[in-house]
Design a protein that fits this description.
By secondary structure, the protein is an alpha+beta fold. It contains 11 helices and 10 strands. Helix 1 runs parallel beside helix 4 and helix 7 packs antiparallel against helix 10. The chain folds into 3 domains: 115 residues, Acyl-CoA dehydrogenase/oxidase, N-terminal domain (Butyryl-Coa Dehydrogenase, subunit A, domain 1), CATH 1.10.540.10; 110 residues, Butyryl-CoA Dehydrogenase, subunit A, domain 2 (Beta Barrel); 144 residues, Up-down Bundle (Butyryl-CoA Dehydrogenase, subunit A, domain 3), CATH 1.20.140. The strands form 3 sheets. The protein has a 4-stranded mixed beta sheet, covered by helices on one side. The protein has a 4-stranded antiparallel beta sheet with strand order 2-3-7-6, with no helix packed on it. It has a two-stranded antiparallel sheet with strand order 9-10. Bound molecules: flavin-adenine dinucleotide (FAD). The site of flavin-adenine dinucleotide has 19 residues, from strand 1, strand 3 and helix 11.
Amino acid sequence: MDFCLEQRRLLLRDSIRDFVKKECASTFVREIDRQAEWPATLYEGLAELGYLGILFPEEYSGVGCDALDLALVAEELSCGCYALAVAYRQSIVLGGMSVALGGADDLKREVLPSVAEGKTTLTWALTERDISSDAGYITTVARPEGGGYVVNGTKMFIYGADRADHCTVIARTSGEPGDRQGITVLLVPLKGTPGISMRPLRKMGTWPVKAFELQLRDVAVPATRVLGTVDEGWSLVRGVLDLEYIASAASSVGISQRMVDDASAYVKQRVQFDTVIGKFQAVAHMVVDMLSDVELMRYMTYRAALMHAQGLPCTKEVALAKLYCSRSSERVGKNGVQVMGGYGYMAEFDMERNYRDSRREAFASGSSLELHGLVAKLMGL
Ligand SMILES: Cc1cc2nc3c(=O)[nH]c(=O)nc-3n(C[C@H](O)[C@H](O)[C@H](O)COP(=O)(O)OP(=O)(O)OC[C@H]3O[C@@H](n4cnc5c(N)ncnc54)[C@H](O)[C@@H]3O)c2cc1C
């Protein structure tokens, strides 16, 4: 598998890298985290430069970029401002790609250009209070009524629901609990819609993007807002999650690279016992271990992304990349905090935030154990 990135991909990566270098100053990112403030100016900056729509088809204001391009973007954004990468993934990958892959032409024309311009924001609601890993048991119901659907249910951990104009809601339209047949995906308008309410949830990290319990009570949704095929929504969900897993793995790579860079810079200037601590072999080896973790994570991510881009079967590789990268970034963060000593634990250094934030990847859009289960099944275990 050839990872010599073509000129086109290098240009994309370098232009995002430049954007991040200019706009994501440490002091600024730390402040929006402390204030738990949505990264509005950064998100608008991405829209102005045309990065929000790159995954969408050309006829809907997109560029038709593939999964490897997505990995490069998610990696660079996560290196500079992980919360911005999360905001991007929530609206563009989970929300936007649900519409791009499953929406009717009129709906795509209505929603995607506006998402690409940053005027419309989307989110995604699969998880419920009591049902997550075993998604076939979801209890949110979409009942056919008056040519459309009436949705009832409660969704849990919904990131960015306060900002989102529409939410991809996964609901049961027929079948038995446990059955993945009978599931339908709907694009539900959130702003000003009767029957929608939200309860904010406090959490460990990614403070700029808030999480909510989202309640839907008799929410009327027109049939034109069905994404994919009625009762057969699970294949759309899987298709979107494959892209999100690639973005997740790439985010782990980006945030881990940042933790290596910060640890490396720190140990080169911190002096103890009249010696810069990076000269102590034990410290240097920890930083090298961090780097070797990141290199392997990147390899797995690009391989899975390239397989996806080439249209090869890659569910196993994609799941393994997310699984391995989320676990490895935890190790990278743990070592990063350790080599910085007490300062690694202090909020005035980025390591503290990045360590907290990086833990998100072990749960969001599928826990590590869930992914073990998926891969074990694919291995026939
Ligand atoms: C930060 C964050 C953001 C999120 N954002 C969203 C969002 O925007 N939209 C959305 O829909 N969801 C979102 N989620 C939900 C996320 O997808 C779920 O947390 C995830 O699917 C795991 O579900 P759970 O937390 O309920 O764990 P559970 O399903 O209750 O599992 C608990 C533990 O048991 C393990 N486990 C479960 N079943 C098995 C098994 N058969 N064998 C072995 N171990 C098992 C799990 O891996 C986990 O470690 C988010 C979650 C987090 C933490």
